Records
---
Amino acid sequence: MDDARSYFYDLADALQRMLRPGEVFTASLQGEDSDFARLNGNRVRQAGHVRQLVLSLDWIEGRRHASAKLDLSGDLNADRALLEEQTGALRAQRAHLEDDPFLLYATELRNSETAQGDGAISSVDAVRETLEAADGLDLVGLYAGGAVVRGFANSFGQRNWYTAPSFNLDWSAYLERDKAVKGGYAGFAWDTSALRARFDAARHELDVLKRPPRALAPGSYRAYLAPAALQEILTLLAWGGFGLKSHRTKQTSLIRMVENGRRLHPEVTLWEHHAGGVAPPFTPSGHVKPDKVVLIESGRYRDCLADPRSAKEYGQPVNAALEYPQSLQLAPGALAADEVLPRLERGLYLNNLWYANFSDRNECRITGMTRFACFWVEDGKIVAPIEPLRFDDSLYRMLGENLLGLTRAPEFLFESNTYFSRSVASWSLPGALVEGMRFTL
């Protein structure tokens, strides 16, 4: 979408000419040029393409401001007229608004143009290779691929542009009824051999799902949490766990780490990796993000995510667009993939978790269900699927005192949400081997 960049800059120049003395504007562009394919029975059942550009505009005078979000048509003359009409409406609204004490926007010029990934494969080839690799499987899922773009401009002359061609294949291979193996494949560079390896592993797990399921009694079991299972836990933790506002108002689920010195395992280092995800390296207010914000370092809490409003309120620098991770990364450990089952020896191999929620937020205790292909392991071998189990355990145990190790090779996971637009949230996570994980029913 290189043409979108020059188009956005032309609109920014037009906005500059609409300014009156004492006014400031910020303009943030969100766009995509995406292909979608919905799969069922390992066939393409629905395919489509979305190209959209949405402009968020804030018209400011002093500490009063009014904002609007506009769908752009792509016709420069028509969109200029739309912006001129909208700025008049924003001025009229602003006249009736109070000062905003937490308004904060970038004033230091930091221009940038960044590309993440190279989009080396077309969506047509990606879907074709997927169908070939999944031959013989009852595959359902969604493929989304193409470029996501973000832009920023303000009346001080700052211009930022970001594009990220990427893909995300979210799929399940079904055996029968509710028995399925769920997986995904996402990233910036397509690797056919890696895709085939995932479907080969799914075929093996489907064979195990044919065996009679093992019903386990409530209790504590050694467990391996695959990256997708760990993602469910960390996604829940992200709900207020790392934000500056939630910390200052004592609503964070990690309050015991902050106030009582609780720690996770020394192997746990968690950061928001702005430079390594799909999200842009700048905020809608024009603040350039640091490459990395270390949230937990060697088991100790370190820094918070501060968006512009919280940064203004608490006198901290802006380091994120949201106080919710968008590019969360957990440092890998030393456990090789072929060591997982021997080290697990006897216990649970958990590919996925479901419906995670807090059972005691202050103690960071989490409950949820096993889902899809989860297995019982004996003598270092997968022997049977398990009936669904509910776990209820504290993060301080699972990733703290009871953590036995993290795997060496992390997996790149994308959020598959496409509400209004493709999500830019991502995770880079290893698997985790845990001693004595608690299951209640």
---
Amino acid sequence: MFVPIYDLNPLKRIRFQYVTVALILANVMVFAFEQVGLDSGTIASLGVVPAELFQAHVLGAGAAPVSSDALPIPELTLFTYMFLHSDPFHLLGNMIFLWVFGDNVEDAMGHLRFIVFYLSCGVAGALTHAWMSPESTAPLIGASGAVAGVIAAYIMLHPYIRVWVLAFKIIPLRISAALALGAWILTQLVMVALPHAGPVAWWAHIGGLVAGALLICVLRSPGVTLFQRPSPPAPAVAPEA
């Protein structure tokens, strides 16, 4: 519904969002390598396959053997999957959200804790997807679970910040983060309730959202409050004659 473009929310605690930029560059570089150096089988082996996680007793006992070219240690796919994307639009959609909202979440945590936060949300998204589709042999790829965690953290930190978005991808609007991101979250909840919601791993988004909402409460830096209101502008000073 809304595609974010820019938020009016300057950094307060860090000089630059190094981790956010590094994550975006890593995703772009991996995607470029996908196009020239990885075949579809290799990409699939780096994705999260729920049936393989259960077969390897990562989530529980497997019901039947699964034949695939998965990594020797399936647990590693819980991390590798979030740096892979199926097409440029899949990549662009995730990276736009990460670019607009990741810097302020990183600002609220610091660099190291933000890395832990991002990866944890991605893992939570993959595990939630696997629990809801335990027999699936389709590989899950994409940063959506991790980015969903960033979205949850941002809306809990800065719901009143004004964000420039494209409504229906064409109409520029300036609205609150609560409205822009709240609409995105509502969409995810509606889609998981539908019996046939297409190929998107909606439960991975839900898992990332829940993880992000919980982790921001414990990983934010001391003094960082939730549901912050923007600081009022400084009063104008009348010039002296």
---
Amino acid sequence: MITRASLSALYTPIYDEFMLATYDEVSQVNTKVFKHVDDSTYQYIVDDLSGLGRWVSADEGASGGYEDPTLGYSKTYTQGKYWKKLQVSFEAVDWDEYALLKKEGDAREMGRGARDLIEYSTATIFNDGFATAGPDGQYLWDNDHPANRDETTNYRDNLLSGALSHDNLETAEKQIADEFMTLAGIPIAVTQKPILLVPPALIGTAMRIVSDRASDERPGTTNRDINVLAGKYIPVEWLYLSAANGGSDTAWYIIFPWLEHLKVVWTARPHFTSWVDEDSEYYKFKGRMLAAFGVDNWRAGFASTGA
């Protein structure tokens, strides 16, 4: 005989599986560019502190040569709570023994909704970076980042210009070489392949630019130039950067994920629970997470609006 108690016991663990399955059904792009940190504090603080600068010459027997680390700008990641719930009444189950099973679609959508929140929240950091201030008070993608707290009239520029193209990417490399410096003014070497991050509208262009052949190569043409950019970047397409999802179909980004300036800080990763509320007479299901999403340094990358 099917009873409320047996239905709840039967379907509750299945709902958790439904939610987790859809949460993982599509690979998250944010994991390729963001450092994920587990931390139990409400506020996770990153203090930007340089190493020491270039060595200086010294005379024999002379004193000195000391240097204090250079201060940057701190970033506080404050945890937020996110959740989604669904419920099924006792009466619905009393009158239809398959009522809980019919909620399978809702359970699956909860998993997708969790993934959507994370992807949207992390992509928004890029999409809004042309108009939202970072820790140093300037837009994330800007041409006047203070070199450090003491050199506020000496600027660094991580705002690229132009549409994504072979020539503009070469120009961007020159800008990165000139502007990509530590707080103490030491050039930052690009030691790993950067990510060339683009919306769906630009993935074809990005793939051609970094292919083995020149970016203008097409079947049946005479273009056979060697492509100096071949293999230098990892092209990554992100749906959440598109204009339809609050971003832009022309903006493009060069990201250095190994520097770990882009972070997702977790107190509680997405998890799903269920219970029976005898007072209100509902079977209840809940997905929940505690997280913070952000960037703590403009040196996370360089970007162009594509204009």
---
Amino acid sequence: MLYPNQTFVQMPVNEAGRDFFVGDVHGCLPHLRVLMKAVRFSPDHDRLFSVGDLIDHGSHSFEILQRLKDWPFFHAVVGNHEGMAMAYRNMPGLLNTAGRIWHENGGAWSAHMTDEQWQLADRVFEGMPLVIEVPLRDGTRVDMVHAEFPTFMEWNDVTKLSVEKVRPAERHLLATERDLIWGRDVFRAALHLRGDGGSRESSGDEIRELSIRMLDEKARKLLKPVRGVDLLIAGHAVTPDRLPMAAGNRWWIDTGAHWKDQ
């Protein structure tokens, strides 16, 4: 389902079926079909929400873009890989930084795209918002972004953002919108506090212990709850144990679909 030129999309409550959230697909359409079959997904009643990064790495990037256009039950926010693709389309060729980085990080599949295929891809990219809100039947507000919601922003500020700022090859690197599709600071803070970001054991060294306490405090500030929502779901950063990871009212659900051992 596409939402042309919309930054924030608020869905209605799904009274007829279930809502499913999936991590970064990265061109792995067969994997997605297996998961849908496993949960007996009903196209007539259920909805499927993606945290973005539909493309690159896997072998079905263009096909997954087609599905987003054709499947009315499929909804996705824009990810950093779509952002790189849009920046490339804004300035075709490999002379811009985003275009070069994109091709080096999975975008090479686009080299053989026809003009007609690019027209469809551009249409899909334009229809992917930055934020999707999914209210549940019990009143819970679930919001979805690709990477993270900046700690310095109020939730109401999402209506002031613009997907257009992820298009230019240069400006998108400095815009606030960058955090929503590129940010990993909050994820790293969550890893630090659970012990996955490096050793936090005391060594008896006072300077080291002070440094750890300062890092702990910084991490806790970054992990303060997102006000205005009940649950924020994101992807972008592959979780260390390949299972969804939670910290406060934030969930990360990118479990590395495109990694070869998955």
